[in-house]
Design brief:
Largest sheet: 6 strands, mixed
Mean pLDDT: 95
Low-confidence stretches: none
Helix content: 40-55%
Strand order of the largest sheet: 1-3-2-4-6-5
Structural class: alpha/beta
Number of strands: 6
Distance between the termini: 25 Å
Number of domains: 1
Shape: globular
């Protein structure tokens, strides 16, 4: 592992994605790479699926309506964006906000795993089924949301995607309830 601060090492991974020409078709039609945002020393990493229109324009993950809802939920548990790290599997916006394709997720996954190696979070929170299935492909979000899962030494907390909850009142409440479990799960993990 190269020396340097976590931020420097993350910047290096970001530069490599561009240099390695990952998903050139996506890159061509995107405004910019949306790598990640927040505190690289955080115990919490949130992983969505791919940037949307606002994210593509601003170069930051979760800045649209779903991001606003994410910020509200963070506030509910006494946190702000600057306290956590937020990223996506796919770092370029898919055209017309379509779902990221399996090949696109596969191309970006090694870089995402390296981001996690640098940050070393206690808890990885997957937002939505795409993010969950990158790490725990055999699980279904509707069955495991809100339940921490340990896999290869890392603890994951699968949550519904904030965007899905924006248009579905019942799912919104479920997501808020699941989100409220984060402090207690984190406390447990810090004891170990």
């Amino acid at each position: 592992m190269s020396k340097g601060s976590k931020k420097d090492r993350l910047d290096q991974i970001k530069a490599e994605i561009i240099k390695d020409n990952i998903c050139p078709d996506l890159a061509k039609q995107a405004t910019q790479l949306v790598f990640g945002d927040g505190n690289p020393d955080s115990d919490l990493v949130f992983i969505g699926e791919a940037p949307g229109k606002n994210e593509d324009l601003q170069g930051l993950p979760f800045v649209g309506a779903a991001g606003k809802f994410l910020n509200e939920m963070l506030a509910m548990i006494g946190l702000e964006r600057k306290d956590v790290y937020i990223t996506n599997i796919v770092k370029y916006r898919p055209p017309a906000n379509r779902d990221p394709r399996p090949a696109e997720k596969d191309e970006f996954l090694p870089y995402l795993k390296r981001q996690l190696e640098v940050i070393k979070p206690k808890l990885v929170i997957t937002l939505g089924r795409h993010s969950l299935n990158c790490f725990l492909p055999e699980l279904s979000i509707s069955q495991v949301h809100g339940q921490p899962k340990r896999y290869s030494g890392q603890v994951y907390l699968p949550l519904f995607h904030p965007a899905a909850a924006l248009y579905n009142g019942a799912m919104r409440q479920t997501l808020i309830d699941d989100f409220a479990k984060i402090p207690a799960i984190l406390k447990q993990l810090k004891k170990k």
